[in-house]
Amino acid sequence: MVIARRIALITLLLALGACSSLFGTRDPLNIDLVGLEPATGQGMEARFTVKLRVQNPNDQAIDYNGIALDLSVNGQPLASGVSDASGQVPRFGEKVISVPVSISAFSAFRQAWGLSGGPPRQGMPYEINGKLAGGLFGTVRFNDKGVLNWPEPVARP
Questions:
Q1: Which numeric CATH code is attached to 26-146?
Q2: Domain coordinates of the chain in residue numbers?
Q3: Which long-range contacts (CB under 8 A, 24 or more apart) does 121-125 make?
Q4: What is the mean pLDDT of the chain?
């Protein structure tokens, strides 16, 4: 009886060790906003396609079957979007993922109101929060922060 318990305990510990090596700690994904392209909107909403570069610094590929994101500018929510796109971010690799987002008339008005209250800014802080859903490891959450800079005016000859 004692030997059976010891064997069961050793088997359990070995199984837990195998699971921890299979589902070990993962480094966070690196997400960068690489593009924002206009898309066709409806009514009083504006639509854009957000392009995100997703870098996987891990030794295992990450499968996904959906993505959701929220974009805030100047600390205020601006746009949100979802996509049922599926694919894989390769191990020690990267992929550009496109997500359609909507900007409501209210969000656009709130941003315009905030910009009208002061001197022109050189850049506007933004933050993206989102998640890649699905795959063997479940949902992977991500965020990115930066500054949107106005393009320099083109000099005319």
A1: 2.60.40.10
A2: 26-146
A3: 122/149, 122/150, 123/147, 123/148, 123/149, 123/150, 124/73, 124/74, 124/148, 125/73, 125/74, 125/75
A4: 81
